[in-house]
Design a protein that fits this description.
heterotrimer, A mainly alpha (342), B mainly alpha (373), C alpha/beta (510), A: ABC transporter involved in vitamin B12 uptake, BtuC, two-stranded antiparallel ribbon, 14 helices, globular, disordered N terminus, B: mainly alpha, ABC transporter involved in vitamin B12 uptake, BtuC, two-stranded antiparallel sheet, disordered C terminus, Sugar ABC transporter permease (chain A)
């Protein structure tokens, strides 16, 4: 008993600082670096294998952004949701709906694009807001609520029209063909918009209070609430952002494919979620970076290009490769989180 | 006087039965059809086969019932399986591609082998899901997402991206054939449902599943080997999905890796929820799920018969999901119907007590313990 | 000595819950620059008092005066704004964010909506530095051990006043030390002393008596929702404190005690050697004989439950080994213990015992069924007979095996749990506070049951908060204090509650 009653040495409050190795492993930027490395390795592999088939052209690299710009925008929206600890399954349907909605308004109703774009974005944001509202206020799992969103928006696509609507509007086609030259290659409007969205998302997540709240509620929602953060509003806002991004992705997709189709972007929510996870964001929330999401999208895009270059490989290998990557990253995440707790 | 006093209590007992609301919804939906198709309930006999709206609802609903029955057990353990759609596609693809490689597509042995192969693949998928959930401790939604993403690719790989069409009489039987005047698939469904009920209620499996889903920590402390049970349940769910996959591909005599069983996981989850099994796990009802699946199929049929454009089907489904989930949400009930109703509803078994405790103060220290002398 | 004016004064506090008066007419004072202990056992009203003070509960009567002004505290946010901060046992911070962010989140310095990271880090570093802590504010919180996270939580709470420097007048530390080791506790104490020197009034709750005597200046003792004393720590020794908490003077206790125990214990059943778990309980040796009832005595949080959980494999031990019936048992999971014939009724009936959705019958047969595996269901006739037998034997009401167990009263739920384990015919039955929160009648029945089980040869490990209860039932009494099994005393006529009490208070048995 004597040992425990000794008087403490006044201000001896040194704290053991974590070892370097532990710090490196615990660093939240590590998964992003891993994905970036994976991308570089795959790109290097592509260069080595297809160097005589024009893989080294800068445009091949830029095409990754052009062909996946809409996915990047959608995945950025999903990043917000997953960072906050939720999930959004309605992304693909929302994209499909936006293509239909836009095509229908432009082609069938003859509205100018300048009016249609804000309308489409507003509808997307409103959809996201409503889902967030229900999730927060009625405490229903996000999975189920956004599942209802998936049904609803895909259904609304079909309500607009069962048939595909191709867009012949001159503004749309000139926008679609517009290119920004970068010397060695060019980027489409869609690619540029997606990069702008990425930059804005990065700023919002890292330099605004809202962004930090997203991380906080993803880290521990209960704590965030007890710390006095408005966790309900943040949650609703996160789904609104995702809805808005999906609608914007839908617009870019419309531009990319120049038609509206009720079956456009079926299952794209899975691609977006996969990109986010491969980009190193923890599915349980609270840890990850939009920059990782960029690499996740690029990796998925590169899989597609490599399969194209390979020629003999068929498109379904994309899905299989995505699944395998997803699995690997989920297992790695799992090991990292258990190791941290131990 | 005696009759007037017993009738309400009997009525209450009836409305309190867990199957009351699902069945009521089903009957209501069926009745909606009558003004539009007066002979909706009639069943005709032609060529020795029974025809009629009721028969076709069960026939077309068969795969969904199968998948939903498997899903019920997974959900009862507190999990979820998103991969069933992909498993449907894989099983159909494997069975059909095996049959199409045979010289004699009608040979019974070949067909049986093909089916066995398909179901084996399904069970392996289930084992993988169960392994990830129970052994690795990954959230079920995430764990089953992997096969949901990769599975369709695998199915297309098997079919080489084509829609494989086959011409096999024995194989046609499962999903499109008739037996004793009824579609054969009805017998398959009946058999699977019967086996499931027997498996869960004649053995102790149902009890243990409900215990694991109802209170995981208590189950651990009572010595239930919940890992084994979870793995088994995911395997069973995949097996059911596999049978559904055989049925779908048999019905169309084709395997479509891309579209077979598309969104069936969502319909199945919906069927389970309508059938009264809570998504939080615990008590489950196979009967409720069957009724739930029939409700969904009837909804599709009804939309078709009353002349609403079929494409609105999904919108209706979304509405059903939203309404059912809102009604299950204790918070929603408290806000809309008042706290009293919510409490009564919860006590009836609508929600788990933890979720029902909307008032944190009441939950944490409603009755401070007074045991110190 | 002229007393300074208290920074916080609570007078005549009343708080009622349906059917229970959790606090009746409690007075409480807190002076600037003191560390004040709030003491009491389960149900004494400690946490209710804190929740009233922090605005989680609204009070039903009485007044709160802060800095001479009467205040109404309606929400935790209001409490914070008034200068009352709380740090709970569980660290309520975001482990994924950096230390600096955790200190400032929600009130980060911004310019035009942009967070000024440099300024934020600098200010956090200054704050941490001023309090004499050596923490890298840029590192993620999760890279630090729990103790440091606890310190960060305190730093954050100090800053809630807004504006410059600590605006906190009252700091409530609710069991911050329960999972810290000795060095970590010293760190925390040095921070507490520093804050005390700065004039902050600290309300400290801990189950460790030594810590109270080490760091606190004064203490307030509650029992059954009433104030039983306010003392300078130096004026009240540990025995006196324990008496106050348990509420009986020594003489009074002894009269209640009567002996009716046999002492012809059988062979050794369970032998634990050096069994222990970091953060749970220090390694201990324990021998349990066949038919023996071992009672565990000790204050709340002294390690009673932790000991029981180790013996059941509910928590994995770090050290030591257990042999049951001469065979070593690994104790890595409850299954191991159950297989060796150990049964455990948790004190948390709701979260760790019952499956509330299932019926009484299903809950009763759960343990037996789990040991048989799913393929061998108990035959219906045998099952119904067993269930009926135990419902009758334990007088479970309603006597309806179909009733949902969640709807039963606490006493009946406890009996269902007992029935669940008795049906498996265990060799050792561990009962953790089986009589807590249940009515007198059910309490007596359960105690009678324990005696008869022991006479039939079953060993029982019995945990209860009441000393008399432990003494009345036990052949041997294990005394716990500050997460340590400090004594094992053979019960006998000379063993009185006051002697046990002395052991609890001093940690030594003469």
């Amino acid at each position: 008993m004597s040992a425990t009653t000794q008087s403490p040495t006044a201000s001896d409050s040194r704290t053991p600082s974590p070892s370097r190795a532990a710090r490196l492993l615990g660093d939240r930027r590590l998964p992003v670096a891993v994905t970036a490395l994976l991308f570089l390795l795959m790109y290097g592999g592509g260069l080595a294998r297809y160097q005589y088939y024009g893989f080294a052209e800068p445009q091949v690299f830029l095409n990754l952004f052009i062909d996946n710009g809409y996915l990047l925008v959608a995945a950025v929206g999903v990043t917000f949701v997953i960072l906050s600890g939720g999930i959004d399954l309605s992304v693909g349907s929302m994209i499909g709906f936006t293509t239909m909605f836009t095509a229908w308004l432009v082609e069938r109703q003859g509205l100018p694009l300048l009016v249609v774009v804000p309308m489409a974005l507003a509808v997307g944001a409103l959809g996201g807001f409503l889902m967030g509202y229900v999730i927060h206020n009625f405490e229903i799992q996000p999975f189920i609520v956004t599942l209802a969103g998936l049904f609803l928006f895909r259904g609304l696509c079909l309500v607009i029209s069962k048939e595909s609507i191709s867009i012949s509007d001159s503004t749309v086609s000139s926008l679609a063909q517009a290119q920004a030259s970068l010397g060695a290659g060019f980027l489409s409007i869609g690619a540029i918009v997606s990069l702008v969205v990425l930059a804005v998302a990065f700023y919002v997540l890292h330099y605004t209070r809202f962004g930090r709240r997203v991380y906080a509620i993803g880290g521990n929602e209960q704590s965030a609430m007890l710390m006095g953060l408005p966790q309900g509003g943040t949650k609703i806002a996160v789904y609104t952002v995702s809805g808005f991004c999906s609608a914007l992705a839908g617009l870019l997709f419309t531009l990319y494919i120049q038609s509206g189709d009720p079956l456009h972007a079926t299952g794209m929510e899975l691609d977006a979620i996969a990109a986010v996870v491969i980009g190193g964001t923890l599915l349980t929330g609270g840890s990850g970076y939009v920059l990782g999401t960029l690499f996740g999208v690029l990796v998925l895009g590169l899989i597609k290009s490599i399969i194209q270059f390979e020629g003999t490989l068929s498109s379904w290998w994309t899905k299989i490769a995505t699944g395998v990557l997803l699995c690997t990253f989920i297992l790695v995440q799992r090991f990292m989180t258990t190791r941290k707790k131990a | 006087m005696t009759t007037s006093s017993t009738t309400p209590s009997r009525w209450r007992a009836l409305t309190r039965h867990h199957l009351f609301w699902p069945v009521a919804v089903l009957i209501l939906l069926l009745l909606v059809n009558v003004p539009f198709t007066p002979d909706f309930f009639s069943v005709r006999m032609a060529d020795g086969h029974l025809y009629g709206s009721l028969v076709s609802i069960v026939l077309f609903g068969s795969p969904l019932i199968l998948v939903a029955v498997g899903m019920t057990l997974v959900i009862a353990t507190g999990g979820i399986d998103l991969s069933v759609g992909a498993v449907v596609a894989i099983t159909g693809a494997l069975a059909c591609s095996y049959i199409s490689d045979q010289n004699d597509q009608g040979a019974l042995s070949g067909v049986l082998l093909a089916m066995g192969l398909g179901l084996l693949a399904a069970v392996v998928c289930g084992l993988w899901n169960g392994f990830l959930v129970a052994r690795m401790g990954i959230q079920p939604i995430i764990a089953t997402l992997i096969i949901m993403v990769a599975g369709r690719g695998v199915a297309q790989l098997i079919t080489d991206g084509q829609i494989i069409t086959i011409n096999s009489e024995p194989y046609k039987l499962i999903g499109g054939g008739y037996w004793l005047t009824l579609p054969f698939s009805i017998f398959v469904v009946a058999a699977v449902v019967a086996v499931t009920v027997a498996l869960t209620r004649r053995t102790a499996l149902g009890l243990l599943v409900e215990a694991v889903g109802g209170n995981a920590e208590a189950s651990r402390l009572v010595g239930i080997r919940s890992r084994r049970i979870k793995i088994m349940v995911y395997m069973f769910c995949a097996l059911c999905a596999g049978i559904a996959g055989l049925m779908i591909s048999s019905n169309t005599s084709a395997a479509d890796g891309n579209n077979a069983g598309l969104w069936i996981e969502l319909d199945a989850i919906l069927a389970v929820v309508i059938g009264g099994t809570s998504l939080l796990g615990g008590r489950f009802s196979i009967g409720g799920t069957v009724v739930g699946a029939l409700v969904i199929q009837t909804l599709t049929t009804t939309i078709y018969t009353i002349g609403v454009p079929t494409q609105t089907n999904l919108v209706f489904k979304a509405a059903v999901v939203i309404v059912v989930c809102l009604l299950q949400s204790p918070k929603f009930r408290a806000k809309v119907f008042g706290a009293k109703f919510a409490a009564r509803f919860a006590a009836k078994g609508g929600a788990k007590p933890a979720a029902a405790a909307a008032d944190p103060a009441a939950a944490t220290e409603a009755a401070p313990k007074m045991e110190v002398s | 000595m002229a007393e300074p004016r208290p920074v916080l004064e609570m007078a005549g506090i009343v708080k009622e819950f349906p059917g229970v008066r959790a606090l009746s007419d409690v007075d409480f004072r807190l002076f600037p620059g003191e560390i004040h202990a709030l003491m009491g056992e389960n149900g004494a009203g400690k946490s209710t008092l804190i929740k009233v003070l922090t605005g989680v509960y609204t009070l039903d009567g009485g007044t709160i005066t802060l800095d001479g002004r009467s205040v109404r505290i309606a929400s935790p946010l209001q409490a914070q704004q008034a200068g009352i901060s709380t740090v709970y046992q569980e660290v309520n911070l975001c482990p994924n964010l950096s230390v600096a962010e955790n200190i400032f989140i929600g009130r980060e310095p911004t310019r035009l909506g942009r967070i000024q990271w440099k300024r934020l880090r600098r200010e956090a570093a200054e704050l941490v530095d001023r309090l004499g802590l050596d923490i890298d504010v840029g590192a993620p919180l999760s890279s630090y051990p729990l103790a440091v996270q606890q310190l960060v939580a305190i730093v954050r709470s100090l800053n809630t006043g807004g504006g410059e420097g600590p605006g906190t007048k009252v700091l409530i530390l609710d069991e911050p030390t329960s999972s810290l080791d000795r060095d970590e506790v010293l760190q925390l104490f040095s921070l507490m002393r520093r804050l005390k020197d700065e004039g902050v009034a600290i309300l400290f709750v801990s189950h460790f008596l030594d810590q109270i005597y080490e760091v606190c200046d004064r203490m307030t003792v509650l029992r059954n929702g009433t104030l039983v004393g306010e003392h300078m720590v130096s004026d009240l020794d540990q025995v006196g404190l324990v008496q106050l908490m348990l509420g009986k003077a020594m003489g009074q206790l002894d009269e209640l005690h009567e002996h009716q125990l046999r002492s012809d214990a059988g062979d050794t059943l369970v032998q634990a050697e050096g069994l222990g778990r970091t953060g749970g309980i220090a390694p201990f040796d324990l021998e349990i004989k066949e038919g023996e009832v071992i009672g565990l005595a000790g204050l709340l949080g002294s390690g009673r439950t932790e000991l029981a959980r180790l013996l059941f494999g509910a928590d994995q031990p770090d050290t030591g080994k257990v042999t049951i019936d001469g065979r070593p048992v690994s104790m890595s999971a409850p299954n191991d213990a159950i297989g060796a014939g150990v049964a455990f009724c948790s004190e948390n009936r709701k979260s760790e015992g019952l499956v509330p959705d299932l019926t009484v019958r299903e809950n009763i047969i759960l343990a037996l069924q789990a040991s048989r595996g799913w393929t061998r269901p108990i035959p219906v006739a045998q099952r119904d007979e067993l269930v009926a037998k135990y419902i009758k034997a334990l007088d479970i009401r309603p006597a309806n095996p179909e009733a949902r167990v969640g709807q039963l009263s606490g006493g009946n739920q406890q009996k269902v749990l007992l029935a669940r384990w008795l049906i498996t015919q265990p060799k050792l039955l561990i009962l953790d506070e089986p009589t807590r929160g249940i009515d007198i009648g059910a309490k007596a029945e359960i105690q009678k049951l324990v005696v008869s089980l022991s006479e039939e040869g079953m060993s029982v490990l019995y945990i209860a908060a009441e000393l008399e209860e432990v003494l009345r039932l036990s052949h041997t009494i294990g005394v716990l204090r500050d997460r340590r099994l400090v004594a094992q005393i053979a019960n006998g006529p000379e063993i009185t509650p006051s002697r046990i009490l002395e052991t609890i208070a001093s940690g030594e048995h003469q």
